[in-house]
Amino acid sequence: MTHGHDDPEAAVRAYYDHVDAEAYEDLFALFAEDVVYERPGQGAIEGMEAFREFYFEGRPLEDGRHEVRRVVADGDGLDGTTVAVRGTFSGVQDGETVSFGFADFHEFEDGLIARRDTYTDRDEV
Fold it and tell me: Residue 37: its pLDDT value, please?
């Protein structure tokens, strides 16, 4: 098993480290093959192939850093556990420096993130 899978909170914290480091293969290892990722105002990303494509080609944010302010885990530690995160992101979008708040919800199945929902105070991320 990859690091963090038996500890959903640690896995979610690792996710943000991997995003900021652009360590995408480590990031993908945290997620289920049939992952569903929902973001505001856009269609769902469904399945690992589409999820990978999003991170390699579709993600509009770059050169950024997440500051995780609060992590709350609800569940017995493995299946059915949801880990909620509140924080801020600072980075670059379309050549402009941006900073905004976010809340993410990660739902675990079989020790992997099966669903991710992102909410931000921006229209598109």
Answer: 97
Cα gap 81→111, rounded to integer Å? 9
CA 99/CA 118 separation, integer angstroms: 15
| Distance in angstroms (rounded) separating the CA atoms of residues 79 and 70 | 21
Average pLDDT, the chain: 89
Q: Taking a C-beta distance cutoff of 8 angstroms, is the pair 45, 54 a contact?
A: yes
Asked if 88 and 102 touch (Cβ cutoff 8 Å), the reply is yes
Ranges of each domain in the chain:
8-120
Domain at 8-120, CATH class: alpha beta
Question: Do residues 32 and 112 make contact, with C-beta atoms less than 8 angstroms apart?
Answer: yes
CB 38 within 8 A of CB 29: no
The pTM assigned to this predicted structure is: 0.87
